[in-house]
Specification:
The protein has helices at about 5-10, 45-50, 80-95, and strands at about 15, 20, 25, 55-65, 100-105. The protein has a domain at about 25-120. The protein has a 3-stranded parallel beta sheet with strand order 3-4-5. A two-stranded antiparallel ribbon has the order 1-2. About 25% of the residues lie in helices and about 15% in strands. It is built from 3 helices and 5 strands, in the order αβββαβαβ. By secondary structure, the protein is α/β, with parallel strands linked by helices. The longest helix is centred in the middle third of the chain and has 15 residues, at about 80-95. α2 (about 45-50) runs parallel beside α3. β1 (about 15) and β2 form a beta hairpin.
Amino acid sequence: MTTQTLATTLLSPFDLAGLPLKNRAAMAPLTRGRAGKERIPNALMAEYYAQRASVGLIIAEATAISKQANGWLNSPGIYSEEQAQAWKQVVDAVHAKGTPFFLQLWHSGRSSHSSFQENGQLPVSASAIKLNGKCRLNTEF
């Protein structure tokens, strides 16, 4: 297969189990930490994703599913009505460009830190097995 053929295939429309994509390129999730302390999606995020909507599919950054799921500074959430409503501006901006948008649901589990938990409680995890290696608390950008 030639380079030209590969490029043509990559840029051709594709049906992903009934979800039409304008091409076969996908944007993988990249956690950015721009949602602020309240973890509310905002206009900056809508602009960022809309600028990348020439791909066939966008998978959004890691998005906390509950307060206990938090483990990264300023990452977005989807556990409050205000957060859910705020995601609409992002989704609308991407859909306006004809691109499907998936949300990466995230729970940090034991890799979180007590500083992200209410009242400094220990992180919640599905397992009591201790992490191997160092767990870095992301406090700077």
